Amino acid sequence: MPTFEKGRILLAVTGFTPQRWYELLSASREVVLEPEGRTDPSITYAVVWKQRPNILSGLPNLRAIFSIGAGVDHIFRDPGLPDIPVVKVVADNLTQHMVEYVLWRVFDHHRQGMLYRAQQKKKIWREPAQRPASDISVGIMGLGALGTAAARALHTVGYRVNGWSRREKAVENVATFHGDRGLVSFLNATDILVVLLPLTAQTQGIITYDLLRQLRSRNALGGAVLVNAGRGKLQKDADILRALEDGTLKEASLDVFEVEPLPKTSELWNHPRVFITPHAAAASDPEHIVAPMLAQMDAFERGEDLTNVVDRKAGY
Ligand code: NDP
Ligand code: OXD
């Protein structure tokens, strides 16, 4: 049997060099790097991150599209997207990174990291009051693979945890809310809001000033806190600045922004109560993602169902 009788892969990526993805995928299948192969009938899979628009529409035998990340909004932006299954990443390694990020940011806000860094700059020796995690409610917007794992970890270290999802959901030790009807109650019970939603037509721009006003600001932290590691277009950067200025928000940790990279002119960069990371909460590591991806392709060719296929209608 020839080595590459299996379907070939089109690797279509913008924004970074996919060398390692190419090497690991090539260990098992022939890989074509876009812009080559755009009408190649031997290509049956596309592995993509922010692919250039319309490049998948000319592939006559494309059977499935694999996202390099957990988010798929970058795929659905494509006007020429063929009507075939889109598979997202669900990987322990990625989930672990997101859990680490969420714990890190929640601990830092809870344990007054911003205050201590400001004091250190001025050589101030002053100890603020300490409150236990059990006095603080963290609300996770988006109780999916990442949000649920973060919720469990936060409960384990002592926080009270709320979760909000589209559909009704039960998660042990988490007070769950869902849909438009549950949103205000969820926010009213939340001191630190952690956003782990996907970007869809329904969620775009959801983190507004008015939404932030619903958070519980009279709390053990002395104010409400926002952590967004979902997508930048969920939020309005200007609304976050306004909320920080008038005390609606005490502090924010932002990993994602309306425009990325965050423009140098953004006031968020220099804000003393904003902590910025460059869309780095949970990177997709090819060493952990490619092997299961290839295994899925093999299984699919044996007639098995693909897993982690996104719901095109819901957009995630
Ligand atoms: P999932 O698809 O597993 O979960 C999404 C969650 O959001 C579900 O609980 C879903 O509700 C909820 N949701 C979706 N739409 C709505 C809505 N309209 N109203 C209320 N809840 C809604 O996603 P993941 O947990 O795997 O990932 C979440 C997002 O994190 C990704 O889409 C990506 O944008 C982002 N991400 C960011 C990274 C970073 O480095 N900053 C890294 C990886 C991911 P339901 O349970 O009812 O379906
Ligand atoms: C993802 C991301 O969606 O890294 O996985 O943002």
Quantity of strands, as a count: 12
Structural class: alpha/beta
Helix content percent band: 25-40%
Identify the overall geometry: elongated
Helix count equals 9
Largest sheet: 7 strands, parallel
Amount of beta strand: 15-25%
Order of SSEs:
EHEEEHEHHEHEEHEHEHEEH
Mean pLDDT: 97
Please provide a written account of the structure.
By secondary structure, the chain is an alpha/beta fold. Helix content is about 30%, strand content about 15%. It has nine helices and twelve strands. The strands form two sheets. Strands 8-7-6-9-10-11-12 form a seven-stranded parallel sheet. Strands 2-1-3-4-5 form a five-stranded parallel sheet, covered by helices on one side. β4, α2 (about 75) and β5 form a beta-alpha-beta unit. α1 (about 20-25) packs parallel to α9 and α3 crosses α5 (about 145-155). The longest helix is centred in the N-terminal third of the chain and has 19 residues, at about 90-110. Bound molecules: NADPH dihydro-nicotinamide-adenine-dinucleotide phosphate (NDP) and oxalic acid. Oxalic acid binds near residues 69, 70 and 284. The site of NADPH dihydro-nicotinamide-adenine-dinucleotide phosphate has 30 residues, from α5 and β7.
